[in-house]
Design a protein that fits this description.
globular; single chain; peptide transport; protein transport; mainly alpha; 61% helix
Length: 378
Amino acid sequence: MPILSSAVFDNKGRPYDVAKILTPDFLFDEEAYQRYSRVFLPITYVLSYGLQFAALAALVTHTACWHGRDIWRQWKRSLIETEAERTNKTYQPLPTTSRDNLNSANGKFIGANKRSRRDDRRQSLSSNPGLDNLMGGEDVHCRLMRRYDDAPISWYLITFAIMTAIASTQGLKFAADLKLGHYMKIPPRTLFTVQMVSTVVSSFIQILVLNWMFGNIPRICTPEAMNGFTCPIARVHFNGSILWGVVGPKRFFGEKGIYRPLTWAFLGGAIAPIGVWLLGRGSRRSVWRKVNLPVLLGSLSWIPPATGLNFSVWAIACFLFNYVVRRRAPAWWGKYTMTLSAALDSSLAFGLVTVFFGFVYPGWTDGFKWWGTEVYKQ
């Protein structure tokens, strides 16, 4: 097996063919699984799941050690009315019926699928990021909340992940925007309208673009796809559904699972922040105070599909702007660093659209090869 790959493999080293272990109703076939092969993970998948387990546990311990007192203090202060709250009282509040109707419509839309009614159990997700912009592994969190003992169903897992991990992540982003708008004194009805309209518009646009890509890009989401449309993130999520939804975590992390030692990462992730806290709490200038294990472990869990190239570019950019420029030109850094970050993100998006529709789609790049077009394939 390759060291770095977005695929999972069978006992002969070939990409795992999940169709061989499914019934015509797309349910798990135990006998076919025993005849075919167990699922084997490349080393990067093993490291990724271990790091995600550790990051999830480290987030709780890190928050309690470094920010427990601040959270308790802020909770008590939240009972006192602030200037922003007094100002926002002049705006017409958003009625709770708007949110209730939206939630009801979403629930009915999902319940319209007859498959989603086969299992009437419900799960709830309580995500505690601890600090703004400090997110835990909601994806693994939600998959672990998934039923464990009985035979899993892949479509159930996908629906469950959408209604927990993805919904909670987007909800936290919306809440962060609402918090910013609260302190910017933007009327709540205006914020809610902008969020809902943008969500509806972007949903239709994404579906249209996706259908267009499936109809116009040959061999899309395969290793032979043109122009790098190999869908690495989608393949990782698909392989994750094999592990957590088709075969089930019990066969990987149970008593007889070959990857059971990975569960020790929970204990290691919970203990490690305590050591960092003990080393750094004695001095405000201690370098240990700058070590954030949840961020470190959580970022590395993006491998795969991320590679060393992704992290090396990030490390170089952060070193140049957050160390060199910040030390030599702090005024410039404080005024323009956030603007530069937004400019780099937006320029990448506009550049991709321009290059694809301006050069690739018309066929002007057919047969054109150089190091930059081939290195990602190696």
